Amino acid sequence: MNGLRTVVVCFVIACAAALSPTAGAAPAAAGSPAAAAAPRWSALPVPAAAAPMYLSDLAARGPREAWATVHESAADGLRAALYRWDGTAWSRDTTFPGADDPGWLGKVQFVGEEVWIFHRTPQGTGEILRRSADGWSTVPLPRTLRTYQDFAAVPGAAWVVGEDDTGLKVLHYDGSRWTEQSTPDGVLYLMGVTARSADDAWAWTSSSNGISVLRWDGEAWRDAKVPLPSNGNVHTILLEPSGRAALGGSQYTDGVARTYLMTWNGRAWRTVFPPLGDTYTEGMVRGPDGALWLPVRSDRAFQSKYARVSGSRTTFSYGPERTNAIDVKPRELTRAGSSLLSFGTVEVYGSPPNLMSERRGG
User: What is the pLDDT of residues 196-233, one digit of tens each?
Assistant: First the structure.
């Protein structure tokens, strides 16, 4: 009897070993899908700013150059702060014109080999800061606006949109002089502007007929006939060199907002409503994997959260765990070569929020 029991036990052990997922399996070869680890988010140290601070923009030219514009608190009001990523670390740039004065910096654009940044001075005037190999220079605006809503620049052209006491203003720079451009009748307010080239710029507007998208074709601003969802607004438009475009915004139903994304393939628009709640899409970027990436509100106080939208599929990933953090908020994303960079704020228990940055890949 004992001999039979021994045989049965040995048989069961042998079967279990044969059916085990790891039984007989050779080690995964280097470079195989099993061995390759998916890119992860890692924390990048950022020199502190004076709290409270506000992030304006983040843009990268490649893996070794990115810029972030910030407003920080000072005794005489808000002061502009500029941060640069060199591929290894974030540092603070204090060499730009007006670095020691009140004011603020806006959008960052790459024009040829130069960096262009919109700057509002303490006197309320606007100018473009240009950084080349020879250092910083400025391009003053032809007039002072009451509000400066947005800025876009490409080789051969730049736009600044805003308002003064006479109403909407679209200021256009052709590399040597400024002119004012008119918009179609009924346009009340330009909320944002972006450009792919000197004769291909887009703006999202509020008009007497609701929210619409305009397109500059080198001669005039015209209605782009984008089939926006009803009862919605536009947060951002991404224009890509390939001719593709992506648009993000919110649609309101019974007072509740839900995020929508639209993509243009050069022929038609496609609209999806990913499970993003009422996420503000201004930080959206096309990732190195071809998907759309957005920072979203996290359900974990000690970790950031990001959404990846590819067609109708949405997945999420979390940033690194931060000890004693009670609120981690990435606000802007940018593609930096084969990596993604984020910039935002983190609040650690017992301290005011300060700047944070994270990278996926690299």
Answer: 999 999 999 998 889 999 999 999 999 999 999 999 99
**Calpha distance 131→122 (Å, rounded):** 21
The first and second tokens of residue 158, run together, are: 């730049």
CB 294 within 8 A of CB 316: no
pLDDT tens readout for residues 94-112: 999 999 888 999 999 999 9
Single out the residue of 99, 105, 110 nearest to residue 59, CA to CA.
110
Q: Which residues pair with 105 in a beta bridge?
A: 119
Compute the distance between CA of residue 283 and CA of residue 267 in angstroms, rounded to an integer. Answer: 25
Q: Return the H-helix or E-strand segment holding 7.
A: helix 2-19
Do the bridges between strand 313-318 and strand 325-336 make them parallel or antiparallel, or are there none, so unpaired?
unpaired
* Rounded CA Rg of the chain: 25
Q: Are 263 and 269 in contact (CB under 8 A)?
A: yes
- Beta pairing partners, 90: 85
List of residues 6+ apart from 56 with CB closer than 8 A: 69, 70, 71, 104, 105, 106, 107
Residues 6+ apart with CB under 8 A from 24: none
The distance of Cα 84 from the centroid of its chain, to the nearest Å, equals 16
Q: Does the bond joining 52 to the residue before it have cis omega, within 30 degrees of 0?
A: yes
Tell me, what amino acid is at 120?
A: R
Q: Residue 181: enclosing H or E segment and its boundaries?
A: none
Residues 342 and 295: beta-carbon distance below 8 Å: yes
The one-letter amino acid at 255: G
User: What is the model's pTM?
Assistant: 0.87
| Number of residues in the chain | 362
